[in-house]
Amino acid sequence: MHLPDTLTRIEDWLWNNAPATARELAPPATDADLEALRRTLGVALPDDLVTMLRWHNGGGDGDGRMTVAPGYAMLDTRGMAAITEMNRRVGSTAPPSPWPAAWLVAASSFTSSYLVVDTADPAGAVFTFDWQDRAPAPEPTWPSLADTLATMLHTIETGVTPDGFPVEITPDGHLEW
C-alpha cells in the first residue's frame, strides 16, 4: 500500500474510533521544521519520514498522543532532534558508541527505548533501541517507516497487536496499546 493511503486510513480510523487521539495530532510539519531537523542532525531525511511529518508533525502533546507502535509515541521534528542529539551525547560518553550519526529517533517510549530510523539505509529501516540493552534489535523491525505504519494500520483495524495484545480505546476516546 502507498504511504499516503496508509496515513489517510489511519486518520480515518482514528476519527471514527479514537477521536480524542485524532484531535491531538499536531498540524503538518512546515518546510522550516524539516530543514531545521535536517540541519540540526546533519542527515538526509528518508522520504517516508518526510511524508509522515507532512501528514502530522508529531502525535500530539497530551496523554493520548498517537503511538506508531505499541508504547512508542510519534515525535515532532523538535522532539526527534532533541532526543536524537541526547542519544548521540550519551553514546559518545560510553565508548564504543552504540549510536551512529545516521540514526534518528522517530518515536519514543519516554523511558530508554526508541523507534529509530536508519537514515543511511536507502529505505530508512526502522528498529527498536533500548539503552538497557545498549544495542539495537539484531535486525530491523521493519524495512521502512511505510512498513511500520502499515503494521500500525493493520493492528488498529484488527484490534490486536503483533504480540497478541488487544488495542484499547479509553472511555474518553484515546487509542491505547
The CATH topology comes to SMI1/KNR4-like
Q: Gap between N and C termini, in Å?
A: 23 Å
Strand order of the largest sheet: 1-2-3-4-5-6
CATH structural class: Alpha Beta
Number of strands: 8
Superfamily (CATH H level) name? SMI1/KNR4-like
Quote the average pLDDT: 89
Largest sheet: 6 strands, antiparallel
CATH architecture: 3-Layer(aba) Sandwich
Outline the low-pLDDT stretches. none
- The helical percent reads 40-55%
- Reading the helices and strands in chain order gives HHHHEEHEEEEHEE
* Radius of gyration, CA atoms, in whole angstroms: 15 Å
Structural class: alpha+beta
Query: Multimeric state of these chains?
Result: single chain
Describe the structure.
- The chain is of the alpha+beta class and 177 residues long.
- It is built from six helices and eight strands, in the order H-H-H-H-E-E-H-E-E-E-E-H-E-E.
- A six-stranded antiparallel beta sheet has the order 1-2-3-4-5-6. It has a two-stranded antiparallel sheet with strand order 7-8.
- It has one domain: SMI1/KNR4-like, CATH 3.40.1580.
- Strand 1 (67-69) and strand 2 (72-74) form a beta hairpin.
- Helix 1 (3-17) runs parallel beside helix 6 (145-158) and helix 3 packs parallel to helix 5.
- Helices cover 40% and strands 16% of the residues.
Features:
177 residues; alpha+beta; SMI1/KNR4-like; two-stranded antiparallel sheet; 6 helices
Short description:
The chain has helices spanning 3-17, 19-24, 31-41, 47-55, 77-92, 145-158; strands spanning 67-69, 72-74, 103-108, 113-118, 126-130, 135-136, 168-169, 175-176. The longest helix is centred in the middle third of the chain and has 16 residues, at 77-92. The chain has six helices and eight strands; from the N terminus they run ααααββαββββαββ.
